[in-house]
Amino acid sequence: MNRQRLTKDVLCDLLTERDNLVKDYGSLEKTEDLVSWTSFFPGGAGVWRGNELIGDALPLYFPEKPYMFVAHNYDGSKSYRRMLKRGWERRNTPFWKTFLAYLDYANIDPTDVFMTNVFMGLRTGKAVGQMEGGGSYFESQCLEFFDRQVAIVQPRMVIVMGNHALNALYDYERKVHVPHPSACRDDAKRADQIPKKVATLVAAIAEMKRLRR
After folding, report:
1. Is 80 exceeded by the pLDDT of residue 128?
2. Which of 11, 59, 76, 161 is most buried, by CB atoms within 10 Å?
3. What architecture does CATH give domain 7-212?
């Protein structure tokens, strides 16, 4: 019996639960359409859609027990609108160069990953920083939805990227922490920095595999 879940069904569940739980956006904007390219949820589908400018179609099946990478927030509202218009996200950035290097060094297949965020709203200014502007219940609603994300996605491991996301998920015990990929900005130094930045992730994967023997 094939128990694989359809990607479209999992995304439908995620978006439905987000809309049921996260309501107090305040002055923050809410994502609507999904960027048609490899991009983190909720702006994108959170699953691998290829490495080209125009993304592949959604994979038919959702990855089984994926590695769930969690950043702090998706992006700024202006950047999100530009991505929707052109259909793709800029690849030549420190974030994507380093994130893909993380996966490569940790021997994680991109098709075996779900990429998401703690906070669901779009900042009205720059993408980085705390989520000022959310309503008084926004943070608690996003944290409640994060628990639902984990329940729906059913990850084998949750990898939290960056200190902002780590602080937001302080009470979530089952996590591995790595530095935010954007912190690795120097192309020439990236190869030397990656092993140190993902050392905890590589060790956690090795321990997980050891326990499964």
Report:
1. no
2. 161
3. 3-Layer(aba) Sandwich (3.40)
